[in-house]
Amino acid sequence: MFNLILFGPPGSGKGTQSEKLISKYGLIHLATGDLLRSEIAAQTPLGMEAKSFMDKGELVPDEVVIGMISSALDANPDAGGFLFDGFPRTEAQAEALDKLLKLKKTGIHLMLALEVSESELISRLLNRGKTSGRSDDVNEDIIRARIAEYHKKTSAVADHYRKFDKVKQIKGEGSIEEIFNSLCAEIGRKKSL
Ligand code: B4P
Fold first, then answer.
1. Given 37, 51, 89, 124, which residue is catalytic?
2. Whose CA is nearest to atom 7 of ligand 1?
3. How sure is the predictor about 124, in pLDDT bands with cuts at 50, 70 and 90?
């Protein structure tokens, strides 16, 4: 089993690169942002609660996203590996994920952290907002709030995995193909160990 976290601030390319990585490595894609947007589209109580946070650029409460990931892991008992995209975003989420994986006698093998400048993040998200229909992408103040949440609560998650020497930084600016090749090179190195 090979379990990977794709990490980085909002707009760093996690969703974009995840699509390519799951198809190359046959991993199950678990993207908390996508799972939350499906709940919103289905107008479930969980979705309605999540929307009130997402529309302000804030993180959704830990217990909501941890519950979603726990169900998704249980729903895929025969997976060859998981790609976690947008999760974990807080230290409590990271600790919960480690425990859930330990129960399944596995763990995180590698965290790939995409590095992108703030001006590039804002420009990408505003650009996506023109067509995505995502309410959290259209307003620059909300985008800045998401980036501030990342610095306040999420960036420390990399330190958690750094303690176990599992983090590799990747330059997240350049063409999608160049970045994909850098990610694959790190995965190849890890898998050959
Ligand atoms: P997410 O859905 O995870 O979204 P994101 O961080 O905005 O996007 P991502 O990083 O995947 O986007 P990408 O760069 O691929 O989260 C949305 C919200 O959900 C959060 O704010 C939070 O409220 C909530 N949430 C989700 N998970 C949570 C959790 N675990 N705990 C609590 N709350 C949670 O794409 C951005 C744009 O850049 C695209 O238009 C893409 O085409 C473009 N792009 C990508 N790569 C590029 C490149 N190399 N060059 C130029 N453009 C590029």
1. 89
2. 10
3. very high
Angle, CA of 78, 80 and 83, to the nearest 5°:
115
From the list 128, 144, 153, 190, the catalytic residue is 128
Q: Kindly state the tokens that stand for 33.
A: 């942002």
Q: How many domains does the chain have?
A: 1
- In short, whether 11's Cβ falls inside 6 Å of ligand 1 is yes
Query: What's the whole-number mean pLDDT along residues 117-138?
Result: 94
Taking only the tens place, the pLDDT of each residue in 46-96 is 999 999 999 999 999 999 999 999 999 999 999 999 999 999 999 999 999
Domain coverage including residue 114: 4-191
Q: Which two tokens stand for residue 90?
A: 């807080």
Rounded distance, CA 19 to CA 92, Å?
A: 26
Residues with Cβ within 8 Å of residue 41, at least 6 apart in sequence: 47
Q: Would the CB of 166 count as within 6 Å of ligand 1?
A: no
Q: What's the one-letter identity of residue 188?
A: G
The closest alpha carbon to 6, from 65, 81, 99, belongs to 81
Look up the CATH number of the domain holding residue 81.
Answer: 3.40.50.300
* 54 Cβ closer than 6 Å to some ligand 1 atom: yes
Q: How far is the CA of 193 from the centre of ligand 1 (A)?
A: 30
Find tokens 């992408």 and name the residue.
Answer: 137
